[in-house]
Amino acid sequence: MEEEFGDAYFRMVPILAMNANAYDEDVRACLDAGMNAHIAKPFQPDALLKLLCELIE
């Protein structure tokens, strides 16, 4: 896909970390690794939908 769309395409794809680790240092590690956002499990479906909408705007 990279050959077809180029590197810029993949930079636009948001990455959402979803895991049970909700401590500040865990969230920071995800963001430092290049993810766009973090949501802890268990999550509320409305919260996930809101976050996804924010990321793809």
* Radius of gyration, in angstroms, nearest whole number: 13 Å
> Which band does the percent of strand residues land in?
5-15%
Q: What is the end-to-end distance?
A: 23 Å
Helix content: 40-55%
Which sheet architecture does the biggest sheet show? Answer: 2 strands, parallel
Count of alpha and pi helical runs: 4
Sequence of secondary-structure elements: HHEHEH
Q: How would you describe the shape? A: globular
Report on this model:
The chain has 57 residues and is α+β, with helices and mostly antiparallel strands. The chain has one domain (2-56). The protein has helices spanning 2-5, 7-12, 24-32, 45-56, and strands spanning 16-19, 37-40. Strands 1-2 form a two-stranded parallel ribbon.
What keyword list fits this structure?
57 residues; alpha+beta; 2 strands; 14% strand; globular
Describe the SSE topology.
Layout: H1 2-5, H2 7-12, E1 16-19, H3 24-32, E2 37-40, H4 45-56
Parallel strand pairs: 1-2
In short:
The chain contains 4 helices and 2 strands.
